[in-house]
Amino acid sequence: MAEVICNTSPLQYLHQIDQLEILPALAGKVLVPQAVVEELAEGAERGVNLPDLGKLFWVEVRSPAAALAQPLVTNLGPGETQVLMLTLEIPGSIAILDDRFARRIAEVRGIPVVGTLGLLLNAKRAGVLSQVGPSIDRLERMGFRLSAQTHGVRYLPIGAAPEDEAMPIPGPGVEAAGTPPGRSSRRRLGRGGPSRR
Fold this sequence. Notes:
Blueprint: E1 4-6, H1 8-16, H2 22-27, E2 30-32, H3 34-45, E3 59-61, H4 78-89, E4 94-96, H5 100-108, E5 113-114, H6 116-125, H7 133-141, H8 185-188
Parallel strand pairs: 1-4, 2-3, 4-5
Helix pairs in contact: 3-4
């Protein structure tokens, strides 16, 4: 089973739309780097509604052992940087990222990426969710922007995914890549969800 390494914004978004449990349903264990733990703690101190990772039995905190990705990610926040570092250290692992620039770096390095939208689509395709429309509506109300190509995904039947969203990845559930744009989670963490620049 592939290791899954998650950044801050997917944890925040899924928690705020009450769908955090799709992560263990799809992936079993989820790795979270220390920088993401710190970003969530800082946001919680400011009163942001964020998950308490200490209460999630399926989360394992793991720090990267080397700085393999450092030359590539100087414009990213600490969370995205450490997610990419861990994926480079763990062969076959999957990065869960929403940040557009981080996703481009992952693509160049051949790292499989899934975003918040992709997780919702995976959950629908795997039968964990019966529909994704209400969750996507809630995401949009929090400032999560969908590309023109992905606006219609909420209306697709179970098992369907638009061409630009379907990227099979090894794992316990069906994996698909979401493509929401964004910037570093440390800079965008807010009460209603990360803002999109």
